[in-house]
Write a structure and sequence with these properties.
This protein is an alpha/beta fold and about 230 residues long. The protein is built from eight helices and four strands. The chain has a four-stranded parallel sheet. The chain is globular and about 50 Å long. It starts with 7 loop residues before the first strand and ends with a helix.
């Protein structure tokens, strides 16, 4: 996909979703998370990554005019938001690409809070946080967390996972792509989280003013397009 462009020095961004899907019917051959990218056939799908297969399936080739996956730009960023503000499909890859573009981290780590589909066993979330998320936090050392699960909304929830003497990073709790309330609720939540946690976000190296301005521009353009073409 090429370079993301200018990055925010020192910003290590962790993006968290809630859980894997129960079944995967769209692809028969999904790449394992630990399989090296250079050895991966481009026709196979990798979660949280705009592979050529995802690019075509999300119709981003047609919308952006680019035949190959590429990062959002100031003029195309709103196109990557359709799956977040409009109908949420099978893939969150474009959503991840958009928020990486919005925050411009120096490094990023994307994961699920639960590492397996929990079914009725809701204790799996507590188990995964204690066993796996704590380890991920230690290894990646994020300076900011963007959470798309209601199960993790505040930094106080992460503090028990941190090593003694270490403070947890700030958590921005955004609505899940399939959350109820429509696009207005999602737009308002992002705005409210950035405005209420300004000091912590800027301490992580990101200008809240610039981020809010970009968010308002991109989400507004996305709403205009959804209204014109139907959701």
């Amino acid at each position: 996909m090429g370079s993301l462009g200018e990055k925010t020095a020192g910003l290590r961004l962790m993006i968290l979703f809630e859980q894997p899907r129960e079944t995967e019917t769209h692809f028969l051959d999904v790449v394992r998370p630990d399989e090296p990218a250079p050895s991966t056939d481009p026709s196979r799908h990798r979660y949280f990554c705009l592979t050529p297969l995802a690019w075509e399936s999300l119709k981003l080739a047609k919308r952006t005019g680019s035949p190959v996956p590429c990062w959002p730009t100031s003029s195309s960023a709103h196109l990557y938001l359709r799956n977040y503000l409009g109908r949420s499909g099978w893939s969150y890859d474009a959503i991840v690409a958009y928020f990486l573009h919005l925050f411009r981290p120096e490094d990023a780590y994307i994961s699920n809070l639960a590492k397996c589909f929990p079914g009725q066993g809701r204790d799996v979330f507590h188990t995964c946080m204690a066993r796996h998320l704590a380890r991920e936090m230690e290894l990646f050392a994020p300076t900011l967390v963007v959470s798309f699960t209601w199960r993790l909304r505040e930094r106080a929830q992460l503090q028990p996972l941190m090593r003694a003497g270490c403070l947890s990073p700030e958590v921005l709790g955004f609505l899940h792509p399939r959350a109820r309330g429509g696009p207005g609720a999602k737009i308002a939540r992002v705005r409210a989280e950035l405005e209420s946690k300004t000091q912590a976000v800027e301490a992580a190296g990101r200008s809240v003013g610039e981020t809010l301005k970009a968010w308002e521009t991109d989400s507004g353009a996305c709403l205009d397009e959804l209204a014109c073409k139907g959701r």
